[in-house]
Design brief:
Shape: globular
Largest sheet: 7 strands, mixed
Radius of gyration: 29 Å
Strand order of the largest sheet: 18-20-17-21-19-22-23
CATH architecture of the largest domain: Alpha-Beta Complex
Number of strands: 25
Helix content: 25-40%
Number of helices: 19
Length: 628
């Protein structure tokens, strides 16, 4: 914390920032951090090893130079700025030491008092252009079977998917921490008056007075990598962007951090890693005009052990975890999954970038059935994702989107359920437009084989297509719009080349609706019949069950039971703001001609909200002083 305060003081100086360059100390310790620090400036350096702060004086030079002790930074500071930097450090009681100087000569030299220089070598030897690694790898052909849906109950599928840890509520992870440290959180995991953890992205403010800020999201589709590694990478990037799209982003301003994990050396894994890196770094991201400036890797994702004399081993498929970041001019354009319950007649629009393929490979439904599947979802055209970003931003600018949620884990049904939970409003889904064959021809015209069993075969086929439509995890977004705006919304989607794959898939049933059927429920309709219906309360209890069971083990069981019992209760009015004052009134205005009373903001190591408190007191007419 002390180091962070010093860094904050430095960058707050603007053009007079004493820090010319900063690098955290990680893998390789000082040997990597200092070397990269001076190399990026085209310089060499001379370091005094014994100037490095040590608790153990007997360390050998290699132990000092290469140890990876954490919570350290290396900085480049101009000599004339050193007194200013020293003053900042003394003020914050942050230890630092000057351990070397940069040199014009590109030579790296370590000086160890009373001993021969442990290192004295040209920088180019370390960081020149080494020969590229060459690895001979082989792609391993794997055979997979399509998921068999015959006899699968829709009701059981809904319960199994909503209660699967991948889809279920992550409340147990969210409520154990403070989500508003520092006072600049605009959107966190929780959404709406009932605080349901379904947010697509996090949004923070840049300062306390303005509306500029930043949005952050994540994307990962690791289960797909066991079947198609490159597709899993493309889907991870696309998921991060569709999550981030809840905020008013522009693609060229999006930056990605890629965390790669693989079991290199295992049959086929090196080839899968190469294929995924190529798909992301050389094909998809350049096409999207999105950069990946940072990342990390862990390439030994395997574990081995012996049990009862038998050797066992588990390896991880190629796993790409994508974190997306973007600056925002105005955070107030951020959309949430909370369905609007104040408008009587609204429609749900599915923008399906899967284009009706409904590929189930690697889906949560497949996991619940114990079937990985064969064909996985994929981003087949980067232009489709670009068009989606542009279309959503256009609809946002026109004020035509009431709620937004991406389709991901659990598919359309999970997305609609989460939106209904957040808004506490009934939803009636209609899958008629989705249960068609890939060419769009109605199932009633398909070749059903034996004519005597035509009706039975068509019925079974439509049940399978219903499951695919509801649980496939193809890329897409679910939008709530006013029914009166349907044509205008579709026209905007048409202008961006998406109308062919956009469908009206449902209606909301708020308490004020003139239609009673479906109020307080999630229903699925097909062929004018309700093929599934359940109360939102019962479904949210299922969805919350994983958090409940984990909380029982971690927290007071009685508290866990009470919290779970309250999830989705229809009579809960939710949280509502009722201010007894005008927040826009400047309470300090009558006293501007008088001296402001002074207030001390006490700060100690570990304190995080001192700036927030100082701003609040300043707005209230005080003169705040930082005391620590």
């Amino acid at each position: 914390r002390r180091a962070q305060e010093v860094i904050n003081h430095c960058w707050a100086q603007g053009d007079k920032n004493p820090v010319l360059f900063i690098h955290d100390v990680g893998a390789g310790g000082l040997s990597n951090a200092f070397t990269e620090l001076v190399n990026d400036a085209g310089r060499g350096a001379r370091f005094d090893l014994r100037a490095v702060p040590l608790e153990e004086s007997g360390l050998a030079p290699k132990e000092i130079w290469c140890n990876e002790s954490q919570e350290r930074y290396v900085l480049a500071i101009a000599p004339e700025s050193l007194p200013q930097f020293q003053a900042f450090c003394e003020r914050e009681r942050c230890p630092f030491s000057v351990v070397g100087v940069a040199t014009e000569e590109r030579q790296l030299q370590l000086v160890d008092e009373g001993a021969e220089s442990p290192v004295d070598m040209p920088m180019d030897v370390l960081l020149g252009k080494p020969p590229k690694m060459h690895r001979d790898v082989k792609t391993v052909a794997r055979e997979f079977q399509p998921i068999q849906l015959t006899g699968v109950s829709l009701e059981k599928a809904v319960i199994d998917v909503l209660s699967h840890p991948t889809v279920a509520s992550k409340r147990f992870l969210v409520t154990i921490g403070d989500r508003t440290v520092g006072g600049l959180s605009h959107r966190d995991q929780m959404v709406g008056p009932w605080q349901v953890p379904v947010a697509d992205c996090a949004v923070t403010l840049a300062d306390y007075a303005g509306f500029a800020g930043e949005a952050m999201s994540m994307g990962e589709r690791t289960p797909l990598a066991a079947i198609n590694a490159a597709a899993s990478g493309r889907m991870a990037v696309a998921e991060a962007i569709t999550n981030l799209l809840a905020a008013p982003i522009e693609l060229p301003r999006v930056k990605l951090s890629a965390n790669w994990m693989a079991a290199c050396g295992e049959p086929g894994e090196d080839a899968d890693l190469y294929a995924t890196v190529k798909a992301i770094g050389m094909e998809l991201c350049p096409a999207l005009d999105v950069s990946v400036p940072v990342g990390k890797d862990s390439l030994s994702m395997r574990t081995q052990w012996t049990a009862e004399g038998e050797k066992k081993k588990v390896t991880s498929p190629v796993s790409l975890i994508v974190s997306a970041f973007a600056t925002l001019a105005d955070v107030r354009g951020t959309l949430t999954p909370q369905l609007n319950r104040d408008i009587d007649d609204t429609t749900l629009v599915l923008v399906d970038l899967g284009k009706g393929r409904h590929r189930l490979g690697g889906s949560v439904l497949g996991l619940t059935l114990g079937q990985p599947g064969d064909e996985v979802p994929d981003l087949d055209s980067p232009q489709d994702l670009i068009n989606l970003v542009n279309a959503v931003n256009a609809l946002r600018a026109q004020g035509q989107i009431l709620a937004y949620h991406d389709r991901s884990d659990g598919g359309l049904l999970a997305a609609a359920a989460e939106m209904a939970f957040a808004g506490q409003v009934g939803v009636s889904l209609n899958v008629d437009m989705l249960v068609t064959e890939g060419d769009g021809i109605s199932d009633s015209r398909m070749d059903s084989g034996d004519a005597k069993n035509w009706a039975q075969q068509v019925s079974a086929r439509r049940e399978e297509l219903t499951l695919k439509a509801l649980f496939s995890e193809e890329l897409g977004v679910l939008l709530q719009v006013k029914t009166e705006d349907r044509n205008a919304v579709m026209q905007t989607l048409r202008e961006h080349g998406l109308s062919k794959y956009s469908h009206f898939v449902g209606k909301t049933r708020p308490a004020s609706s003139s239609i009673d059927v479906g109020k307080g429920q999630l229903q699925v309709w097909r062929d004018t019949k309700a093929v599934f219906s359940a109360s939102l309360f019962d479904l949210q209890q299922v969805w919350d069950s994983v958090s409940w069971k984990i909380n029982q083990q971690r927290d007071n069981p009685a508290c866990a039971d009470s919290e779970h019992a309250a999830a989705g209760v229809p009579s809960d009015p939710g949280m509502h703001v009722s201010l007894t004052f005008d927040p826009l009134e400047n309470v300090a205005a009558p006293y501007l001609n008088l001296s402001r009373p002074r207030v001390a903001i006490l700060r100690e190591q570990g304190v995080n909200s001192h700036v927030e408190m100082a701003y609040a007191f300043t707005q209230a007419g005080f003169e705040a002083y930082d005391v620590h």
